[in-house]
Amino acid sequence: MLSHFLSDESGAVTVDWTVMTASIVGLGIATYGVVSGGIQNLSGDVDTHLSQDLISTSFFDTVSVLAMDFTGGDAGDWQGGTVMAPIAALGEMLVLGPQESTSLSMDIPDGATSATISFDLIGGDSWDDEVATISSDSDVVATAVGNWRAGTMTFTVPDVDGIEVSTTVISSGTDLGGHPYTGFKDTVTRVSITVDNPGDTLDLGVLSGTGSGIYDEFLGIDNVSVTAQ
Ligand SMILES: [Ca+2]
Ligand SMILES: [Ca+2]
Predict the structure, then answer these.
(1) Ligand 1 centre and the CA of 72: distance in Å?
(2) Residue-range domain boundaries for the chain
(3) CA distances from 2 to 8, 13, 22, 28, 161 (A)
(4) In this structure, which topology does domain 63-228 adopt according to CATH?
(5) What is the pLDDT of residue 3?
(6) The pLDDT of residue 101 is above 60
């Protein structure tokens, strides 16, 4: 019937209409047959979930614990380091000199299942394969080797249970300022650390392995953001 309908260009509109209507109704019935099982199954699932106790006592949205960029010289709760602007183009940041460390202890809200701290790590001027070390509580979570010739900061992330570290290069291979010698290339890397089950407090530590003064080489921290979720 359908092939006849397709090949025959003449004929009464009512006949075509009947054929088309029959096809559409047929399609509707076929669709119902395919879909109804799934809908019944889904409604069964919804019923099952509704009859279970799914109400959590601690609904927890992502909350901002801290957001700071050291503007105005404010170091917040960071212990160690100096707020200054050794590279004018990058503005104020927390700067570590030779073998200097800094730490930040953050209160994490009750009910958070993870916390994430993100910050820019700046390798300024004549890094010559010295190492920066980043730790969370007592675990070393990342190390970074700086090199001024390449203008790179190369990260190594050890496997630590319950901790994820990601790094994104924001600037490399370029002299951004600082020491007058323009051959001393600088680097900026966004570091993001997520800690599962952080507990009440989360401690972050950063150690600069540089060997000479801030005028010659330094490690910087900037644009700090901490969230709990
Ligand atoms: Ca800043
Ligand atoms: Ca530089």
Answers:
(1) 9
(2) 2-51, 63-228
(3) 10, 15, 10, 17, 65
(4) Jelly Rolls (2.60.120)
(5) 65
(6) yes
Ligand 1 centroid to residue 218 C-alpha, Å: 15
Distance of CA 46 to the CA centre of its chain: 33
CA of 93 to the centre of ligand 2 (A): 15
The CA 171 to ligand 2 mean position distance, Å, reads 12
pLDDT at 174: 98
State in Å: Cα 69 to ligand 2 middle: 21
- How far apart are the CA of 163 and the centre of ligand 2, in A? 32
Ligand nearest to the CA of 220: 1
Q: Which ligand is nearest to the CA of 85?
A: 1
> What is the pTM for the complete model shown?
0.74
